[in-house]
Amino acid sequence: MRQFIRAIKTPVTLIVLLAILGYGAKWGYENATMGSTKPSAEACVMTDVGDELTPRKVTVRVFNGGTAPKAASLTKLYLNSHDFRVIRTGNSERAVVNTVIIGNSPDDPEVKLVQQYFADAVAEGDGRADHVVDVILHDKTKRATKIAGSVPVDGPICLPRVSATPSASPTPTK
After folding, report:
1. 37 to each of 31, 42, 71, 132, 160, how far by Cα in Å?
2. How wide is the angle at C-alpha 128 spanned by C-alphas 124 and 133, nearest 5°?
3. Main-chain phi, psi angles of 74, to 5 degrees
4. Counting C-beta atoms within 10 Å of the first and last residue's C-beta, which end of the chain has fewer, N or C?
5. How many CB atoms lie within 10 A of CB 29?
6. Residue 61 half-sphere exposure, CB side, CA atoms within 13 Å?
7. Which tens digits make up the pLDDT trace of 64-79?
8. Judging by beta carbons within 10 Å of its beta carbon (0-12, 13-18, 19+), is residue 75 exposed, middle or buried?
9. What is the spatial distance between Cα 73 and Cα 19, in angstroms, rounded to a whole number?
10. How far apart are the first and last CA of the chain?
11. Which helix (H) or strand (E) element contains residue 28?
12. Percent of the chain at pLDDT exceeding 90
């Protein structure tokens, strides 16, 4: 009997391992091909914020474009203290000489609002559909001393869905 178990143990083990590998490959393929990786054209929602846009309604990602350690994390704390919703921090592939605020358009109210918080910020637009605002910091980013705290708006504006995942590419590389 022992010889029978010994003779069967190796093939059974191989079959079980192949079944696990096959299941993992099938699961991985299904999840990798599920849906599109491009951001939705309707990644934002027209939202009535009243007469002014406040930080509480703005979604921000902060990236370090310089060499100062923990700059993005410290800026996240700064923006959170002003009620911005910071959803991500990290490093940018793009090196910058001024703080850069990137949104759908440099004239969007959410971009102008975030720009108020940085003394040396330059606004850019890349046509992103989700209206999440990216902040790319440089080594000597300066925080503003006089902040209005809101931006006047006329009617509803397009803001990110709270539960939606923002665009996969956080910052353009130049």
Report:
1. 11, 14, 29, 17, 17
2. 60
3. -70, -35
4. N
5. 10
6. 21
7. 998 988 999 999 999 9
8. buried
9. 44
10. 70
11. helix 2-32
12. 52
Q: Assign 62 to helix, strand or coil.
A: strand
In the chain, where the domains are located: 1-35, 44-160
Burial class (CB in 10 A: 0-12, 13-18, 19+), 1: exposed
Q: Are 119 and 140 in contact (CB under 8 A)?
A: no
* String of DSSP letters for 71-122: HHHHHHHHHHHTT-EEEEEEE-SS--SS-EEEES-TTSHHHHHHHTTBTT-E
* Nearest residue to 101 (alpha-carbon basis) of 74, 70, 141, 67: 141
Q: Cβ of 42: how many Cβ atoms within 10 Å? A: 11
pLDDT digits (tens, 9 = 90+) for 74-109: 999 999 999 999 999 999 998 899 999 999 999 999
Q: How far apart are CA 87 and CA 33, in angstroms?
A: 26
| Residue 64: its H or E element | strand 59-64
Residues 6+ apart with CB under 8 A from 170: 61, 63, 88, 90, 92, 134
* Tokens representing residue 174 in the block: 């130049």
